Amino acid sequence: MKNLILIALLAVFIISCDQDDQDLINPETANLKGDWFNGSELDEGATLYRFTYTFRGDGTFEGVSTFRNSESNELLGYDYKVSGDYELTRDSIIFFTTKQFYIEAGTPAYLPALEDLDIRDISERQAVGYEITENKSLLTIDFPPCGPTENCIDKIIYSRLED
To answer: Which domain of life is it from (predicted)?
Structure first.
């Protein structure tokens, strides 16, 4: 009798794992593949801030924030970069962040080269909801809810960066 229960539990486990694998979308053929940005003007329009996600077909991603002169479009510098792997399902992106590049406290708002940022190896997993709309030109990322005293982001809308 114990063996029958054990076999039944094992069968349920195998079936549920198999269904999870079927929910994964191949990043090579996904609509998410490419560059997506969100930006704003700073300093009364003198500086443009842009955060760009790049989702590659090999299941890796990179996010970089840049600052540019709004008149000349000259690159002024960077303040953040993140990279790692991702998995995609019908309704979520699972980020597996492995590297984070950032500005140390007490330094300027941005640094001229990515190499000037401090690097930190991390192992972080975050699942977010997503939706691609407007003829595959807008990406909305929905962040999970957080506690009442936390400073959280609800959602961010990114535009596809055309080649």
So the answer is: Bacteria
CA 36, CA 157: separation in Å to the nearest integer?
9
d(CA 43, CA 35): 26
Contacts of 20 (CB under 8 A, 6+ apart): none
Query: Domain coordinates of the chain in residue numbers?
Result: 25-160
pTM: 0.81
Q: Which fold has domain 25-160?
A: Lipocalin (2.40.128)
Report residue 18's pLDDT band, with 50, 70 and 90 as the boundaries: very low
Distance CA 26, CA 23 (A): 10
Residue 38 near residue 159, CB atoms below 8 Å: yes
H/E run at residue 83: strand 75-88
